[in-house]
Amino acid sequence: MGVIINGIVIVICSLIGMGLKAGIPVKIHERLMHGIALCVLAIGIDGTLAGENTIVMILSVVVGAMIGESIDIDQKVTYGISLIEKKISKPGSDSQLGQGFISAAMIFCIGSMSILGSLESGLTGDNTTLYTKSILDGITAILLSSSLGAGVLLSAIPVIIIQGLLVILAGFLAPILSVAVVNEIIAVGSLLLIGLGMNILNITELKILNYTPAIFLPPIFLTLLSLF
What is the pTM of this model? Predict the structure, then answer.
C-alpha cells in the first residue's frame, strides 16, 4: 500500500507541477533546478556516510560501472525515452522528457528512504517511512515537473516496480539483509545521487544509469571480504 500511494502522489504532484510550468519564469525554473540539485547533493553526501567499508563501495562502483557500461543501460533507456518523445512531442519543440524521467527516477528510487522504507514494509508491514517519503517525493515532483515536464510523471512507473519488488523480496532476502549490508547499499546508492546532483548543475555529464548495477553488489563483496 505504501508503494502504491507513493506512485499515486508522484503522478498527482507531477500533474500539478506541469500545470504550474507556464506560469513560472525561466530564471525561476533554473533556480528551482539548482536548488533541487543542491538538496540531492546533500542527501547523497549524508547517505554515503552510512557506509563503513570504503573498499566495498569502491569495488561495487568499479564492477557495477563495468557491467552497466557493457550493457549500456543509459543508451537503452535514453533510446526508449526518445521514441516516446518523438510520438508525443510537437515538431520543433524542446522536450525534456528523457532528462525529467531519468532525474526523477534516480531521485525517487535510489534514496535511503526508498530502500529502507521498502524493506521495512516488506519485513514488518510498517509503511510509515514510505508514507513520509511520499510527501517529500510529492514536493520534489512538483518542482521537477514544473521545469522538466511529463518525464517526471513517468518516473512513477519505476518507483512502483522497484519499490514493489523490494517489498516482495524483503522476506526472502532477510537472512542476508544485515544492518551492515543495508548501510553499504545505501552508501553506494547515495554516491550515485551525488553524481546526479552534479549532472543537474551541469558540472558533469555522467551516465548515472550505467552505474546502477553497483547498488546490488555490496552484499556480494561483503560476503567475499568476510572470507579473508
Answer: 0.75
